[in-house]
Design brief:
2 copies of one chain form a homodimer. By secondary structure, chain A is of the alpha/beta class. Chain A has a domain of about 210 residues: 3-Layer(aba) Sandwich (Rossmann fold). Chain A is about 40% helix and about 20% strand. Chain A has 14 helices and 14 strands. In chain A, the strands form 4 sheets. In chain A, strands 5-4-1-6-7-8-12 form a 7-stranded parallel sheet, with helices on both faces. Chain A has a 3-stranded mixed sheet with strand order 9-11-13. In chain A, strand 4, helix 2 and strand 5 form a beta-alpha-beta unit. The first copy, chain A, is globular, with a radius of gyration of 19 Å.
Chain lengths: ~350, ~350
């Protein structure tokens, strides 16, 4: 089996690739396990050398729209599975509306067209987002979000992801692809550097202090958030690819499970796992632009469809931090980070 | 005030234009009544001569995408209100996926871009559709649809209209336009000829027999449908333009009110209003392709937001037929139709 991952050099994409290469086989859409022959990583950035060192990895580097416009073979005749993770992030999309439309709507549609042209109905796992749900005074969100809650996005990223879900659903209904719409929760703790996502601080406020660096938290401690660890997130994406059509059910998106916590509880967990001095490196510096986006997202998710697929949320944030530390060993405060 | 109607030569567009020209003024978005200076009708077909005879009417004839691509002034600097009714209909979109995407998604987006470029935040009333709701075995519709029911379209037309709603909502949120998403019910009785809409027969089965012509009904008599007369539909579109932002509320779409009836009850009403012989001109000829689309639509609508705006459904189908007959006097069976 040949697999494509857009956004394949990003944190989630690369982690997903590593997991696939490690397990070596995958049961696609309820079928028997098949050997994974190639994993194509499509991204504006080159994938990490640890991945390209594997002979099964193929890298396609460039802007997804440009690659597809230029008829570069992003998906090839024998690709059976595409994880579409590439996207402009929420902060970027709010700052530059047209960039978001191009990166999240046009690129998704062009990718689906490329899949359709294969004529083989490949499986497409589309990474949608919790950000399709937005709270507003005119239309408050229900206390708990479930798989049938009407999305009312309050930012362009959420609208664009929700449009992507509709495209995937209809391409699937027409038989052009087998579609899997999966809404990712906010992933924390992400390693690496901050990005333009409004939710970036939800990793940074843990990651930076653990490296001895101060980090800003732009929302008040009582802000409730719905989080998933990188491991649970990858598990959800893989399960979407593995589920058979009947098991998967409706073409509408499923919400992945989330741990409901607050930013204050996250800081308390950091103090417990990393020490009080570490937690004191968090600066509580309000940023209304970020807070407006993040506080419009829901915090309580009833992920019934995901649960029926055997997917569960993380147990507590302490364990998430501990897992992050075991994968990203702590450097001494002040030491250069890798 | 200057007003644009896309699909302005169509039945609803022309009727809306006539109504606007007749009343001569409009209170836009909660403001004071303003004199209507021009009504621009944009359509692939030329508007009826009865409309172009009015000096306030301006006709722009052509394909909407091509007009906008060619920078033809579809909307002009002083246009304050756009009714976007132009669309490929449900049957066409199901038969030709790419045509539907172009006509319903690309054209809507291009029109919104043209409005955005004005820099004046014009009001855009977007005619969405009941077809955003679709019933399926994997995800049955609730017994009653309300304004917060999750749309699960089961045809491309419904998906494309729902994507249009999302675009209108986000363009409105960004302040590029003032947005009004309005879901039209199936309009019956439409005068004129059958069109490519899967719901076309819901007018044809009344209109053709009244003209002494046989007509096919492709679904069983017990099929439940949600209908609105042309008059109630135009009333809904105008109310959307008139409502102030606070009165209108959320940027998500409102469902217009609908009369819940069945195809069998429609035939019975035809027998009562038009005579038994007239009703006997209906041929009950099942057509699975049409039935699949139409029976996936909901029949029971709780139009709470519309009701709060003072909009009510038609009282009964007999009155709808009577109103049709008063506007389209009956010709003798066998006489040439106009």
């Amino acid at each position: 089996m040949n697999i494509v991952i857009t956004g394949g050099a990003g944190f989630l994409g690369a982690r997903l690739a590593r997991q696939l290469l490690e397990q070596g086989t995958l049961s696609l859409a309820g079928g028997a396990p098949q050997t994974i022959q190639t994993v194509t990583l499509v991204d504006r950035a080159a994938p990490p050398a640890t991945l390209t060192a594997d002979s099964r990895v193929r890298a396609v580097v460039g802007d997804l729209n440009q690659l597809l416009d230029a008829s570069t073979q992003v998906v090839r005749a024998d690709d059976a599975l595409v994880f579409h993770l590439a996207a402009a992030v929420s902060g970027e999309c709010e700052a530059d509306f047209d960039l978001g439309m191009r990166s999240n709507v046009d690129a998704t549609r062009a990718l689906l067209q490329a899949c359709r042209k294969l004529g083989t109905s490949p499986t497409v796992v589309f990474a949608s987002s919790l950000a399709v749900f937005g709270n507003s005074a005119a239309q408050p969100l229900p206390a708990v979000i479930d798989d049938r809650t009407l999305p009312t996005p309050q930012n362009s990223y959420g609208i664009q992801k929700f449009i992507g879900e509709q495209l995937v659903a209809d391409y699937a209904r027409k038989g052009f692809i087998r579609g899997r719409n999966v809404r990712l929760m906010t992933v924390s703790v992400r390693p690496g550097k901050p990005n333009g996502a409004a939710s970036s601080f939800l990793s940074g406020m843990i990651r930076e202090p653990l490296a001895g660096v101060r980090a800003a938290c732009p929302v008040p401690p009582e802000t409730a958030v719905a989080l998933a660890s990188p491991a649970r997130t990858i598990e959800g994406l893989l399960r979407a690819a593995e589920a058979g059509d009947a098991e998967w059910g409706a073409r509408t998106a499923i919400n992945l499970p989330a741990l409901k916590t607050t930013v204050g509880e996250m800081a308390a967990a950091l103090a417990r796992v990393g020490g009080k001095e570490t937690a004191s490196l968090i600066d509580w510096t309000p940023d209304p632009a970020i807070a407006n986006i993040v506080t419009s997202w829901p915090a309580a998710i009833d992920a019934a469809r995901a649960r029926a697929l055997g997917l569960l949320p993380d147990g507590d944030f302490d364990s998430i931090i501990a897992a992050y530390l075991s994968e990203n060993p702590r450097t001494a405060p002040g030491a250069a980070t890798q």
